[in-house]
TrEMBL record:
Keywords: Exonuclease, Hydrolase, Nuclease. Pfam families: RNase_H_2. This is Putative exonuclease, contains RNaseH-like domain. One of its GO terms (molecular function) is nucleic acid binding.
Length: 250
């Protein structure tokens, strides 16, 4: 689903009105017909569309991030997939004021980069990974990954954010990342370890076990790479559930 299919970014237009438009064959901004919604709403939509085309042509994802309801930010992905940064962190615990970030993996444009504590994990290197990124995608990153990085390194991750935990819940998927991957059929390479194992592996590495770090990095990289597969799956499912279902009611 593309942003151009969306009408809920318009102030005063909710899901029911948007679905009414779709059901009447108005599935794209270019197809808008004000007779379906009345003159006041029609004026709002026409004004928005005129402004929105300019922002879309400029690649201004922030404009749409502000306009879309929080639960609908997954709609940004199709337009900005090439400039999306998927990332995941590993830590020594759950408290971002006390515990440390050990590794961070970023997956973007087919390439995966992992930064390691004590080697190259710095605020400058983290910020560099988000340069020119239009969108970032995490799983539970709103509550965990983002505040951890911001607190630990003093960075400001001011990039439009899709936290996949919430659209997954919208589709009825619950549990952690690995469980949901299994539920939707996203395959995971070895190693088959847990978050607790990740903490243990880091401590083993600190005691001199280089193989433990190799395993931890492999696990962290899989998390970041699989976020893209999960984003593709989730956006496809929501496209069918939200958009195609309404269109079929016409």
């Amino acid at each position: 689903m593309r942003i151009e299919n969306s009408f809920i970014p318009v102030q005063g237009i909710g899901e029911s009105t948007e679905r009414k438009l779709w059901a009447n064959g108005i599935t794209h901004w270019d197809e808008f017909d004000g007779s379906v919604v009345g003159p006041t709403r029609a004026d709002r939509i026409e004004t928005f569309i005129s402004e929105a085309w300019t922002h879309l042509d400029d690649g201004d994802v922030t404009f749409f991030d502000r306009c879309l309801p929080a639960g609908e930010r997954w709609r940004l992905y199709e337009n900005f997939r090439e400039d999306t940064c998927f990332f995941d962190i590993e830590t020594t615990g759950l408290d971002h004021h006390r515990d440390r970030v050990t590794t961070v993996s970023f997956h973007r444009d087919g390439e995966t980069t992992t930064l390691v504590q004590g080697e190259d994990l710095t605020a400058e290197r983290i910020a560099r990974q988000f340069e020119d990124a239009k969108l970032m995608v995490t799983f539970n990153g709103k509550r965990f990954d983002v505040p951890f990085l911001e607190t630990s390194f003093g960075v400001d991750l001011d990039v439009p954010h899709v936290d996949l935990m919430y659209p997954c819940r919208q589709l009825g998927y619950s549990g952690g990342l690995k469980q949901i991957e299994g539920d939707v059929g996203v395959e995971r390479d070895e190693p088959d370890i847990t978050g607790k194992d990740a903490v243990r592996l880091w401590h083993e590495y600190e005691r001199g076990n280089e193989n433990a770090l190799e395993t931890l990095v492999s696990y962290n990289r899989d998390d970041a790479v699989n976020l893209q597969s999960l984003m593709e799956t989730v956006s496809d499912e929501l496209h069918r559930d939200v958009f195609e279902t309404a269109c079929q009611q016409s």
